[in-house]
Write a structure and sequence with these properties.
single chain, mainly beta, Porin, eight-stranded antiparallel β-barrel, 2 helices, 53% strand, DUF6646, signal, Outer membrane protein beta-barrel domain-containing protein
Amino acid sequence: MKRFITLSLLLAASFVNAQAFKGKGDVKFDVGANIQNGGAGIGISSDFGLGENMSYGFAASYLLSASSDDLGNKPKFGDRIDAKFRFNANLGNVFQLDKKMDIYPGLDLGLRNFGAHLGFRYFFTEGFGIFTEAGIPIASYKTNPVGFDKLNNQFVFNIGASFNL
């Protein structure tokens, strides 16, 4: 029940805000819930526009609720946290979508792996909307992640809010 209430509060808090990609000089800040096998948590990311359709940024996540291993051990702080450098191709205008929408595939290089993500944003106003993003690891730094190493080396789904700074 405690996990359900925590996750519900995170999801409710994350449905707050988003922004359309404007190009060079644009700065975006996302806050959302992170859902994956064996845990759920929070994530933040920030992207900076490089050109009309490119951006780079940083992302961090922390698992608030994580499963214990077979021996009953709980994951430590270092097992729950991940940080990444990311690069996005913002393709909303390439696909001639409404200016309120953006699709952004990208690559990320993190503390745990090299991965890819695909996201979508819908903007209610210039600085307010929602986003959803799915990510997968392409190459893990450990050949065979076991135990808590699997927490940050798997499919992950994010949903939340984005702010245009």
